[in-house]
Specification:
The strands form two sheets. Strands 3, 4, 5, 6, 7, 8, 9 and 10 form an eight-stranded antiparallel β-sheet that branches. A three-stranded mixed β-sheet has the order 1-11-2, with no helix packed on it. The chain is built from seven helices and eleven strands. The protein is an alpha+beta fold. Helix 1 runs antiparallel to helix 7. It has one domain. The two termini are about 15 Å apart. A hairpin with a 2-residue loop joins strand 7 and strand 8.
Length: about 230
């Protein structure tokens, strides 16, 4: 789940960057085929999903009432090594009503560079961000641009990341929404804001603490705590 929140935050900030820099015409991108995500070649099986769930051990339950869409209880230690296939399988299996990612693949290369590609539902992302709580100023900033963006654009991200005691270090080398690639100067300008946003969302989840997240050896080595029970609206 930590990785998923980080990917989500990365995509939100890049959407803001690219939408503000280029501008988009809703609907046109779909007609042109621009929103077909890049294939990273990551294939997974049900065994990958089951291994990932076994590593986390989080009890995933459904919420009955629609008065809220997320609820967390307790805390448990999570330690293990997650391959590209496991991460992709867990993202693809998410059933949360407002989970914004689809057609997503995550590839962790041997040199520690992480790539992510897929489609991203902006409306769902804003709802998810609001339900996680905390400062809403960044989400409001994103909303200023959503009228210019196709709601479910494709995305591609590439870069390096480490997490130590909930402190995020990012080095994004490439970011693309549909067919528009963000200039490196713009990415660099906003990486600090992105790290702050990620850290704020982590702190909004009770019982969540990322002691370390290391991608340097071609997989995610994670040492963290997370709520023992996660309830979500399906």
């Amino acid at each position: 789940m930590k990785k998923f929140l980080i990917v989500l935050a990365c995509i939100i900030v890049i959407i803001t960057l690219v939408a503000g820099y280029f501008g988009f015409i809703p609907g046109l991108s779909n007609v042109m085929g621009a929103n077909k995500p890049k294939d990273l070649g990551v294939k997974y099986t049900d065994a990958d999903l089951q291994k990932g769930r076994g590593l986390t051990g989080v009890d995933l339950q459904s919420l009955i009432s629609d008065q809220k869409s997320l609820d967390f209880t307790g805390s448990k230690n999570i330690y293990g090594e997650y391959t590209s296939e496991i991460i992709t399988a867990m993202i693809s299996s998410a059933k949360y009503k407002f989970y914004p990612l689809s057609n997503t693949q995550v590839r962790i290369n041997a040199d520690g560079i992480v790539e992510a590609a897929g489609n991203f539902d902006i409306d769902k992302a804003l709802k998810w961000s609001a339900d996680l709580g905390g400062d809403t100023s960044f989400s409001r900033e994103v909303e200023n641009y959503t009228k210019y963006v196709s709601n479910n654009p494709s995305y591609y991200l590439k870069g390096k990341m480490t997490v130590t005691n909930n402190q995020i270090t990012l080095d994004i080398s490439e970011a693309q929404i549909s067919r528009f690639r963000a200039p490196q100067s713009v990415i660099n300008k906003y990486q600090g804001d992105l790290a702050n946003f990620v850290e704020q969302k982590i702190s909004a989840v009770p019982g969540m603490n990322i002691k370390s997240a290391d991608f340097s050896t071609g997989s995610l080595k994670l040492d963290a705590t997370y709520p023992a029970i996660e309830k979500s609206l399906k």
